[in-house]
Design brief:
The structure holds two protein chains of two kinds. By secondary structure, chain A is α/β, with parallel strands linked by helices. Chain A is built from ten helices and ten strands. In chain B, helix 2 packs across helix 6, helix 4 runs antiparallel to helix 6 and helix 8 runs antiparallel to helix 9. Chain B has one domain. The chains are: A alpha/beta, B mainly alpha.
Chain lengths: ~270, ~250
C-alpha cells in the first residue's frame, strides 16, 4: 500500500450537484506525485468541474479534497492563494489576457508576485518561451496567435512560477495533428524535466495513452475504471470498451433522454 | 402567485445584498490600488476618459449651442437676451453638464467596461487570474472602477466648458449679444456653490455609472448573450439611477 505522502491529491467521497443534476456521487481519486494522471470521460461527465473543485474554484457539497496533506476546504483566501501559487493551470482556450502581449502574459504572474528586476524577469520569461518554442513570438498579441500557439504560451505562463503541479484542461481540443503532437511532447517533457506532477483532463484516448502514467475514467458521477492505459485497454467493462474504442452506442447511449419518438412525431406537439 | 412574489422578493434582496458586498469589497481594495498600483488606474482613466473626449466635446458644443439659441429666443421676449450666458452657465454647470455627461459616459465608457469584464469572464481570463493567485476584483475591477470615478468629473467639466463655448459662439457670434454682457452677467450670477453642486453630482454619477458597469460585467452570464444583456442593462439602469440621484441631490442642495 502507498504511504499517504505518495499522493499529491486525494479526492474522498466527493458529492457535487448543479441544480437538480448530481454530477459526482461519492467520487474517489488519488493523484500520485511525479506522474501524469489523466482524467477521462464522455462529454458532460464533469471533468472540468472536477478540476475546478480540486483548485477550489467550486466548493463540494460533501466529501473532502486533500492537496499535499491539506484539506482545501479549511483554507482561508490567503492560504488558498499561497497554495495556488504552486499550481499551474492550462485552460481549454489558453485564457491569455487579451490586452497584454505574449511576453507580458508570461511575465504576468512574476509581476504580481515577485520583485524581480526587469532584466531577470526578461531572462525567466524568455527561457520559458524558449521551452515551448515561442521565443520569437514574444512581441505578438494573443489575437495574432493560432490555437496551438496560444496554448503553448499559456503553458509557458502556467510554468513561469515553477509550480509543483500542472493542470491541463482539455489541452488537445481543436488542434491540428502537428500542434497536438507538440503539446503531447511538452506535457511529458515538462513533467519529467521539471520533476512536477500533472493532471490532464481529456477525452482524446490515443493522446492520453501515449502521455499518461495512470488514467481515471469517470462516468455517472463515479470512477468507472482506473489504471494504466494498457490496463484500461484490456478492461472487460462494456463502458470502458465503448469509451476506449469510440463506439457510438453502448452503456453511454447515443440518444439523449427523450420521449417516445413515434409519440412525439404523431402526438399533439406535432400539430 | 404568492410563491412567485416571495421568490421575486427573495431574489431581489439577495442580489441587493451581493451588490452591497461587492461595493464594500471595491472600497476596501481601492486605497491599496490607488497608492500602490496607480499605473493601472491611470490606464483606465485613459480608457474611460480620454477615449470619451470626442463624443463629450461634440455633444457639449451642440448642447451649449442649443442653449444659446433657446435662451436667446425666450429671454428676448423680456428684453433679457444679455442673460443668455448666465442661463447657459446655470443649465450646464448645475444640470446638463453632469447629467448628459453621465448618460454619454454610460453609453461610451460604461458599456466598454461592462463588456470587457464580461468577455474576460466568458473567456476564462478571470478564472486564469484566480488560478495564478491574483484576485481579479483587485487587479481588473477596482482599477476600472476608480478610473471611471476619476474620469467622470473631468469629462463633465470639459462638457460644461465646451458647452459655454458653444453658447458663446451662437449668442455672441451669431445673434450679436454683447460679449462683455455675456461673460460679466455669468460671472456675477454664478456662485461657487453652483459649481460645487455640479462637482458633487458628477462625482456621484461617476461612482454610480462605474459601479453599475463593473457589477454588471462581473456578474454577466459567461456567454455572448449574457454579456450583451449585461451591457444593455448597464446603460438602462445607469440612466434611471442617474436621473433619480440627480433629483435627490438637487432637492437637498436647493
Amino acid at each position: 500500500m502507498d504511504s499517504p505522502s505518495d499522493n499529491l491529491i486525494e479526492v474522498i467521497d466527493l458529492d457535487f450537484s448543479r441544480g437538480h443534476r448530481q454530477i459526482f456521487k461519492g467520487l474517489n481519486i488519488e493523484i500520485k506525485r511525479g506522474q501524469v494522471t489523466a482524467i477521462m470521460g464522455p462529454s458532460g461527465t464533469g471533468k472540468t468541474t472536477l478540476l475546478r473543485l480540486i483548485t477550489r474554484q467550486l466548493i463540494p457539497h460533501a466529501g473532502r479534497i486533500i492537496v499535499d496533506g491539506t484539506d482545501i476546504s479549511t483554507l482561508n483566501q490567503a492560504d488558498l492563494y499561497r497554495l495556488r501559487r504552486r499550481f499551474g493551470m492550462l485552460f481549454q482556450n489558453g485564457a491569455l489576457l487579451t490586452d497584454l502581449s505574449v511576453f507580458e502574459n508570461v511575465a504576468f504572474p512574476l509581476h504580481e508576485h515577485t520583485n524581480l528586476s526587469n532584466r531577470l524577469m526578461r531572462h525567466v520569461v524568455l527561457t520559458k518561451l524558449h521551452a515551448v518554442g515561442l521565443r520569437g513570438a514574444a512581441d505578438m498579441m494573443p489575437a495574432e496567435l493560432s490555437g496551438g500557439m496560444a496554448r503553448r504560451v499559456a503553458l509557458a505562463r502556467a510554468m513561469v512560477m515553477d509550480p509543483d503541479f500542472l493542470i491541463y484542461d482539455e489541452p488537445f481540443v481543436g488542434l491540428d495533428p502537428i500542434s497536438m503532437g507538440v503539446i503531447v511532447r511538452l506535457v511529458r517533457r515538462m513533467n519529467d524535466a521539471l520533476g512536477i506532477s500533472s493532471i490532464l483532463v481529456s477525452h482524446d484516448v490515443d493522446e492520453i495513452s501515449t502521455v499518461s502514467d495512470c488514467s481515471y475514467l469517470i462516468s455517472d458521477g463515479k470512477v468507472a475504471a482506473s489504471g494504466s492505459p494498457e490496463e484500461l485497454n484490456r478492461a472487460s467493462s462494456e463502458l470502458v470498451r465503448q469509451f476506449m474504442h469510440g463506439m457510438a452506442d453502448g452503456p453511454v447511449a447515443f440518444h439523449f433522454d427523450a420521449p417516445d419518438y413515434a409519440e412525439q412525431l404523431l402526438g399533439r406537439d406535432a400539430e | 402567485m404568492f410563491l412567485d412574489i416571495y421568490i421575486t422578493i427573495r431574489e431581489f434582496v439577495r442580489t441587493f445584498g451581493a451588490f452591497q458586498l461587492f461595493f464594500l469589497r471595491l472600497l476596501m481594495y481601492s486605497p491599496r490600488i490607488l497608492f500602490k498600483r496607480f499605473g493601472l488606474v491611470v490606464s483606465q482613466v485613459y480608457n474611460a476618459g480620454t477615449l470619451s473626449l470626442v463624443i463629450i466635446m461634440v455633444c457639449g458644443f451642440f448642447v451649449g449651442a442649443v442653449l444659446g439659441l433657446q435662451g436667446y429666443s425666450n429671454l428676448a421676449r423680456f428684453n433679457a437676451e444679455d442673460s443668455v450666458g448666465t442661463f447657459a452657465a446655470f443649465a450646464l454647470v448645475k444640470e446638463l453638464g453632469p447629467v448628459i455627461t453621465a448618460l454619454l459616459f454610460a453609453g461610451r465608457a460604461g458599456t466598454a467596461l461592462c463588456s470587457e469584464i464580461g468577455l474576460m469572464k466568458a473567456t476564462d481570463q478571470l478564472s486564469a487570474m484566480e488560478m495564478m493567485a491574483v484576485n481579479p476584483i483587485r487587479r481588473v475591477v477596482v482599477p476600472r472602477f476608480l478610473g471611471g470615478i476619476i474620469a467622470m468629473p473631468l469629462l463633465a467639466a470639459v462638457f460644461s466648458a465646451i458647452g459655454l463655448f458653444g453658447a458663446h459662439m451662437v449668442g455672441v457670434g451669431l445673434l450679436g449679444i454683447d460679449v462683455g454682457a455675456f461673460w460679466q452677467q455669468m460671472q456675477q450670477s454664478l456662485e461657487i456653490n453652483d459649481i460645487y453642486e455640479g462637482i458633487i453630482k458628477s462625482v456621484a454619477f461617476g461612482i454610480v455609472a462605474s459601479l453599475l458597469a463593473v457589477w454588471e460585467g462581473y456578474n454577466a452570464l459567461p456567454t455572448a448573450e449574457g454579456v450583451g444583456r449585461a451591457t444593455t442593462r448597464t446603460v438602462v439602469i445607469t440612466a434611471i439611477v442617474v436621473l433619480i440621484i440627480d433629483f435627490m441631490i438637487t432637492a437637498v442642495m436647493l
